[in-house]
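Input sequence (338 aa), recorded before submission:
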Amino acid sequence: MAATSLKDNLSSAYFGAAHKLYSKRSRKRIIAYVESYEDIAFWRNLLDEYETKEYYFQVMLPSAASLTKGKKMVLINTLNTEELGKNLIACVDSDYDYLLQGATRTSRHVNRNRFVFQTYTYAIENYYCYAGSLHQVCVQATLNDRQLIDFEAFMTDYSRIIHPLFLWSVFFYRRRDTHTFPIYDFSAVTSLQEVKLSKIDQALAGVQRRVDSALRELESAFPHYTTKVRELAGELERLGVFPETTYLFVQGHHLVKDVVMKLLNPVCSVLRKEREQEIRTLAGHAVQFRNELSGYQNSQMNVEYLLKRNTGYKKLYLYSRLKEDLQQFIALLNNDKE
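Predicted structure, token format:
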């Protein structure tokens, strides 16, 4: 009887899998070109929500003939084909192109083509660094739920500090001037130095001093631009760039390496030590201590690895805007079908 039941279950599973395969092949495939291997998981996770009985997406790199990757390759391989919008879409990081609002050719392509989907944040990494999700990342890494710092408050304060300097950065790039105040100079000024959790305010104070110094230099060298730079703040707010959320629009790699990981590493170090001390205190004997400690250490995960797989950004307002773009695309597909 049990053998018959097992056979029936296996048969059912086989036909279920076969049906899914047939169903997928019978649907329309839409290729989604992305910039790099690291981008595949993000876009796959998003596009999965929009697959229907009629359509499914295949996320892939922009070239089947080479290992060439990047935003330029995605746009080259999509914008010059009639398949764009029918069987093909482009999914790219915004970088500064969203904020440039057509000041460059690439910016015009990214902002005006409804079949090119952009992150609105500078890059995917900015989503991973969403402040509201960072505590959960630490919990997953350390298995300790104690909140040592308020990540949302910290990133809000950090954003307010760097916002005036960020305006200068965008201003020059809108003028197609990538030399006077390049992104790497902005990143150097706004990086966190060593973070001590007992003196967390000092980390922000250091950024404030460097930002104030850079602002004085720019305002002294370019006094005729000062008013225009300040006026830019209002325009960027209409695009979703607020003083409190500036970190979402700075270079993603810089944000991960020079800001967020500078916070997460010391936080996770303290949380792990706390948990290990708890095990040491509560263990009844040496053998139990070694077993518990070994089990805990084997259960830990690398915090940077977890950050890159963080999906806690889905409440972010920019993510909602990206989803609205995709909803409009699906509506177009349905209208064409009718």
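Checked by second reader. Residues 14-19 have pLDDT under 50 and may be disordered.
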